Prior knowledge:
- By secondary structure, this protein is mainly α.
- The chain has two domains: 1-239, MFS general substrate transporter like domains (Growth Hormone, Chain: A); 241-492, MFS general substrate transporter like domains (Growth Hormone, Chain: A, Up-down Bundle), CATH 1.20.1250.20.
- It has 17 helices and two strands.
- A hairpin with a 2-residue loop joins strand 1 and strand 2 (316-317).
- The longest helix has 33 residues, at 137-169.
- The two termini are 40 Å apart.
Amino acid sequence: MDRASEGHPRGLYTLFFTEMWERFSYYGMRALLVLFMVTPVAQGGLGFRDEVATAIYGLYTAGVYLAALPGGWLGDRVLGGPGAVWVGGWIIAGGHFCLAVPGVASFFAGLILVVLGTGLLKPNISALVGTLYPEGGARRDAGFTLFYMGINLGAALGPLVCSFLGERVGWHYGFGAAGVGMVLGLVQFALTRRHLVVQREGPEPVEAAPLSRTALVIAGLLAAALGAVAVAGWTGMRVDPVGLARKAAGVIAGLAVAYFVWALTLARISREERRRVAVILILFAAAALFWSGYEQAGSSLNLFAERYTDRQVGSFEIPAGWFQAVPAVFVIVFAPGFAWLWVRLARRGRDPSPLTKLGGGLLLLAVGFGVLVPGSRRALEQGSVWPTWLLATFLFQVFGELMLSPVGLSAVTKLAPARLVGQMMGVWFLAASLGNLLAGLLAGNVTGERASAMPGQFGSVALGAGVAGLVLLMVSRPVQRWMTPSTPAERG
């Protein structure tokens, strides 16, 4: 008997380990990124000011989400899902190995390559998981749950390995380890790829992209990345990362507003559909605000771990980047409990609405930053504080993530008009991208020469998230009626 018929398709384990190693490389490198940039040149770093480093971090993480939009299109129309994962993985590995080479040019080339490769791999590997379960149902949900565990397992292991090597041996060894992790994922993908039986919704299987087409895509992406760096170097072009991040945030916000205005006024959708699009607009704003706080984990909170946290355990000093593994560990521990809670409440007819959950997620984010207000004040007075301040902050933030991230994603797919689903998912990626940009900009206001502003800035983030969360809770009941079909035609 085929074991796949008794449990999950064998292809799931191929994708599980590929994604685990990709997340190992991504989060392992991310744990080093800001720390490396702010380290003085004499100590092997780049010597950037804090606000410059955190702005670059925001641009980088935002770029990953933006690249997912054309990356998904390339996977659908040009390379096929498996081809996009394969090509994207090698571009990611190349990016990490570029980061392992000392030099400013190789650093920025590496970042661009990782962004482009992740944009190819990330959306397509998630789509491949869905194609393994054409029947849908609970088995598919369970498959995505296992896949999600692979994501967080890699996110937990990556910072532990890469931060130890980067902070203790040499920064470029840490970046190189991230590249080795991605290569390991590609090796196992190649060895087990035969288990992927990937089909479209129709009966015809997805064909592999011709080698010439694949080579053309690779060449184009590499030329775009390396050409941009080369032109900047040859012309002596000076880029202000802080100014660029602000402009990019304005552009993304403007695109989102323009899209929602079009959808609500010109998209020829029904009154009921317009109401649901209005709900998605609320979800977009809530998600962008949430990520603007949550994604400071790799920037301001990473610097707080390095500079203001007592990391000494006996004769061993814990690498600052190890704290970047904590959120993933919390997700692995607590995600099953949240899933059980929602199922139990649903059985009793008391499952909170999406807006109620998002409001709760923002309130938990506010509590997390609220914890840091006295923690940062104490750190400024004493020089260092116990790691429990950061651990408590991460705990509340992860609770907020578990209420917001999967719920928001599910709500968008259910609320979007049928012919706008793909576009609305792209808008959801824009919310994450905007949030990451804002996180990088906010982080620059609480570190370095502006460290004295930490308590006030953390308090402002807590206040903003708290007020937004309370507003969502107050409007959740009336807005819930917009999410419920009112006519037989709307119910389908």
